[in-house]
């Protein structure tokens, strides 16, 4: 019962905070922490104005125990840099066991791509969430392979985990997971070339402007691709840009279109956290519906960590998420370029690339309302913040010395 346990951890943490003020000021004043507080406050405000107060309140409470049990408790656990690897392996090793079970069961169906959708049950809701988790941990475990303070036995363990995860994500047929790893590889190249984040930001803005300037021509070109996500691996890769016949891609466009129409109706405070899936059905157009469309909110939500908040929490909800993306990217690049300890730097690169895969994945799916992805997302965020506050300048930073007595 993971969520009751998380709720219990949140209560224990809050009681300790009230009685002993256990959270250091450097953590509370960190830009990521401030953004988290702003997001929770805005979610509370939009819950009060929600079209379904009960649903939104439940969503808000769940977000609270995800954040407090993973991020705030995480910042307490990770003050000691030797706790980072066990923290990562506590999820990675069970994930590898899930991979082996899934691969074994999938083999009975000759690794059919359609079976991949549900074969991960009951461990994950579907193959996309499974692929997202794998994509987050592949860069981290690879980075741990290159740490100098690692024994041969641990290197063997890391190599085994990477091999299992890579095989598992290929057999998951989770195209968003594949895409996020490709994007993370691109970021890794920029890190190795020591390209500044400001340069990348300007480049991204320029490409975005060009995309919207030539969007009609781009969509015409994409419309010529009619390869469906069925069959071998090459067809699944080719189908990523198929917006003419691939049901999965078209259903995402349907959900995104509904989200934008709903936003136009309630642009400032939105419909309320967690309410999209119960209200989007009337906003579907018959021309955009697919064979997997539904009117009952049973097949997920907006399929976007960006359009979901836009619809449910208004324009400010989207701006907060985008701000968190840019703040994380800025912090990640700064840490990679400034961390002195080589072993901490390796972990920093791996964790940063891991959390980046989820930000990319967030354009196509959203899973932060589930425990399976909230743990690595908020946990990785806690690792980066702790490296920034405690471990950036060596064995013990000044802020670490000040808080060791807590």
Task: Explain what you see.
- With 406 residues, the chain is mainly alpha-helical.
- Helices cover 69% and strands 0% of the residues.
- The chain has helices at 2-20, 25-28, 31-48, 53-77, 84-107, 127-145, 152-172, 175-192, 197-213, 215-223, 233-238, 247-265, 276-279, 307-338, 342-361, 371-391, 398-403.
- Helix 4 crosses helix 16, helix 5 (84-107) packs across helix 6 and helix 15 packs antiparallel against helix 16.
- It is globular and about 60 Å long.
What's the helix and strand layout?
Elements: H1 2-20, H2 25-28, H3 31-48, H4 53-77, H5 84-107, H6 127-145, H7 152-172, H8 175-192, H9 197-213, H10 215-223, H11 233-238, H12 247-265, H13 276-279, H14 307-338, H15 342-361, H16 371-391, H17 398-403
Helix pairs in contact: 1-4, 3-4, 3-14, 4-16, 5-6, 5-7, 6-7, 6-8, 6-15, 6-16, 8-15, 12-14, 14-15, 14-16, 15-16
Radius of gyration: 21 Å
Spans with pLDDT under 50 lasting ≥5 residues?
Answer: 396-406
List the helices and strands in order. Answer: HHHHHHHHHHHHHHHHH
Count of alpha and pi helical runs: 17
The share of residues in helices is 55-70%
The average pLDDT value, as a whole number, equals 88
End-to-end CA span: 30 Å
Shape: globular
Task: Report the biggest beta sheet as strand number plus sense, adding barrel if it closes.
Answer: none
How many strand units? Answer: 0
Strand content: under 5%
- Structural class, from secondary structure content? mainly alpha
